[in-house]
Specification:
Length: about 725
């Protein structure tokens, strides 16, 4: 055996046979053979893919491997593991393996002083309510749920069968609501001596293996070798981001912990981290529960005379990212806390407000809304308000220089849009020198690369605001991954800190109805987007009535008539205040006093006004603020190309889209299903091909660098897409 840089057995642990082609599977065997391992290693590893594994096949192939003029070596295994997300131990500075330590110190609980926390069995127990709440908390209504009610006896122990996986959470919840308390009518009768099981991650409806998991959302933490009360205390002291805590009906608690991994590779790393932290803090983990398709105990059933019940939901930190940051902050080299008494009489000055009552200078703001909301126009309106020192909607703005980073529009369109907004607002262009526009369409790079370039160009410009529109053009990583989005948002912090400027950016809503969600839960992707900025302004559309549009049309006609009359007559004493608010009376007056040429001109103006009113959309802006009190919702009309306040208050009584029914709630902010992720990969690939080489045909390496993935992954995505091909190492659009 050669002296390898890495332990190939540890490396092999990070390669999933189910994710390899047949040739790659053969190459694993050839590499192990060349490096001097026994065929039993290949055999045991291959068993992890029951769909491909055939007894005796490894031994037959093994005998044909010797004597090759171009042998496959151990480095091939290292590269395969890298492609599936493994990070070499040299890069981490610590040994890595399925059972190796990854976490930092991370000791939170002093096991010598921890006191047990009693787990109270419910007196008046509603099994259907337990199971329904469990399903609502963990699953989206459209996701398939795996569960098992049948068991068989083996060596004196009852084992679960494969069970069912063909029904969605929504279907199960609806049927449970009608079952009259008999769970067996919905799931099938179970053996009350054995209990029942359920899988905590959603499935694709085609099976129960790891590859059938559609979202690697949760992991199971279970310990059956220590007192129940002690388990409960440590889980809570560790502030694990537990979605559901279930009593197994015997001697353990099952904690369904949020890990929110983007894929299986990230899931493995996060479970490693989770288990290591639990072990360091005295929670003795059953490490056989690592698999994302693992069964857990189902709440709402009996087991040998005891209840399998739901102990608690949504305890600990709100998500994986918040929990990991907290853990890693326990042992750090940050400065010591300062006593408040020492600074009480000379507190530092607060940063002045950039947007009165909303945002301070040097802070971050996110504007979130659907595609029809005119978010880009709203940001241009804000840039102009800051440059001119005017109001933005209902808020006063500080005056100063603004950098508008344009990533989406071509240069001419962007410049014309600024002029259009200036004219629609009716502002004289008195301080155009306060607005700089950085046109980067077709030249945008990921935010981690853009940030230092932006800082270098803006260092001496004294900007008080940098507006980036839109951020999807510079996203780094998966927007549904909390830790990747935390790193992405950190780039905005760098810009704020280095330049002393506010950073303002916008993001789109997730799919589906938004009216039943809190404003901070509407933005697409990870909750980091909503929780990272100092101010979040969220737009949601309001459905207007015909009567309301008639009212707006009446106002528009009155204003247009008044403006036309102002330009041609002295008329103020002839019309009352009531007349000025009546389109009928205003038109009558105009027809009496204008000649037919003037009236024809006015009619053309009124036709345009009515057309614009018909195209108007109504919006409500809600805020989540860190530095200021929450403001009442602001209702606006978007009348292309600007937003205007609803001065009449007519929009105040309109409610957004109706809330979802209860059975569709529970996991509304969960990540996209497999089909959505495939669409997202396709879009990301097309964007990378457009931007990774400034519009020219990029190489595979350039696309891989842009996406932050391996070249092999790029090849797989190109094959999946079907519209492109690789020729001489470059990616080209497929002809025909």
């Amino acid at each position: 055996m050669e002296n390898n840089q890495y332990d190939l057995l540890a490396v092999l642990d990070y390669i999933e046979p189910a994710e390899l082609s047949y040739q790659d599977w053969i190459n694993v065997g050839m590499a192990l053979n060349y490096e001097g391992y026994d065929v039993s290693v290949w055999e045991e590893w291959s068993r992890r893919d029951p769909g491909r594994y055939h007894a005796g096949e490894c031994a037959r192939k093994w005998r044909t491997f010797s004597g090759s003029s171009a042998p496959v070596k151990g480095g091939t295994l290292v590269q395969m593991a890298r492609d599936q997300g493994w990070t070499p131990p040299a890069d981490l500075g610590i040994p890595l393996g399925w059972d190796d330590a990854i976490a930092s110190e991370g000791v939170v609980v002093d096991s010598n002083w921890i006191e047990g926390k009693e787990v109270e069995e419910p007196g008046r127990w509603d099994p259907v309510k337990d199971l329904t709440l469990y399903l609502e908390t963990l699953f989206d209504s459209t996701e398939n749920v795996g569960y098992v009610t049948q068991s068989f006896e083996k060596d004196g122990k009852y084992m679960p069968t494969k069970g069912n996986w063909d029904r969605t959470a929504g279907q199960l919840i609806e049927e449970l609501a009608r079952c009259g308390g008999d769970i067996g009518r919905v799931l099938g009768d179970y053996n009350p001596e054995v209990g029942a099981w359920i899988r905590f991650n959603p499935l694709d409806g085609n099976g129960i293996r790891n590859e059938n998991v559609t979202d690697f959302r949760y992991a199971l933490v279970e310990s059956d070798s220590m007192e129940l009360e002690r388990q409960n205390a440590i889980i809570r002291e560790l502030e694990l981001p537990v979605a559901c805590l279930v009593h197994s009906g015997k001697k353990s608690l099952h904690a369904i912990v949020r890990v929110d991994a983007a894929d299986y590779s990230e899931y493995r790393k996060r479970v490693d981290y989770l288990y290591e932290i639990c072990e360091k803090n005295g929670l003795q983990i059953d490490k056989q529960n690592r698999n994302p398709s693992r069964l857990s105990r189902m709440p709402g059933v009996m087991r040998d005379g005891r209840k399998q019940f739901l102990v608690d939901t949504n305890i600990g930190k709100p998500d994986w990212n918040a929990w990991q940051e907290w853990i890693e902050g326990i042992n750090d080299d940050l400065p010591d806390p300062e006593p408040l008494e020492a600074v009480w009489d000379h507190l530092p000055d607060l940063a002045p407000a950039l947007i009165g009552g909303v945002l301070r200078q040097g802070h971050k703001m996110l504007i979130a809304g659907p595609s029809k909301a005119g978010k880009s126009f709203l940001q241009i309106e804000l840039a102009i308000a800051i440059a001119e020192g005017r109001k933005w909607l209902s808020w006063d703005c500080a005056q100063g220089r603004v950098l508008y980073v344009n990533l989406e529009l071509d240069r001419a369109s962007c410049l014309h849009r600024f002029r259009d907004v200036y004219e629609a607002l009716g502002y004289p262009a008195g301080h155009l020198g306060n607005i700089d526009i950085w046109n980067l369409r077709g030249r945008s790079v990921p935010m981690d690369k853009l940030a230092p370039k932006l800082i270098r160009r803006a260092a001496k410009k004294d900007y008080i605001a940098v507006i980036i529109d839109p951020i999807y053009k510079v996203l780094t990583g998966d927007e549904n991954s909390a830790d990747q989005m935390a790193l992405f948002c950190n780039q905005f912090d760098k810009v704020c800190t280095e330049l002393g400027t506010a950073v303002i950016y916008c993001h789109h809503h997730s799919k589906g109805a938004q009216g039943g969600k809190r404003s901070m839960d509407r933005a697409s992707g990870s909750g980091v987007f909503a929780r990272d900025p100092d101010a979040l302004l969220d737009l949601i559309e309001l459905e207007t009535t015909e009567a309301l549009r008639k009212q707006e049309e009446n106002g528009a006609v009155c204003r247009a008539c008044k403006q036309y009359l102002d330009a041609h007559f002295k008329w103020e004493e002839e019309l009352s205040q009531d007349d000025l608010c009546s389109s009928v009376r205003m038109l009558e007056y105009c027809r009496e006093h204008l000649d037919r040429w003037q009236m024809a001109a006015l009619e053309r103006i009124l036709a345009e006004e009515k057309e614009q009113v018909a195209a108007m959309t109504a919006w409500r802006i809600e805020g989540t603020l860190r530095e200021f009190p929450k403001f009442p919702p602001v209702n606006v009309w978007f009348r292309y190309p600007v937003h205007t306040l609803d001065e009449s208050g007519a929009l105040g009584d309109i409610q957004p889209e109706a809330e979802l029914p209860p059975w569709k709630k529970g996991a509304e902010n969960n990540k996209k299903n497999a089909k959505d992720r495939k669409t997202e990969r396709k879009r990301a690939l097309e964007e990378a091909l457009e931007n990774s080489n400034f519009g020219e045909e990029p190489s595979v390496a350039e696309v891989a660098e842009y996406l932050g993935v391996s070249k092999r992954t790029v090849r797989d995505r190109i094959n999946e897409h079907g519209g492109y091909e690789i020729e001489d190492g470059f990616v080209r659009k497929r002809q025909g």
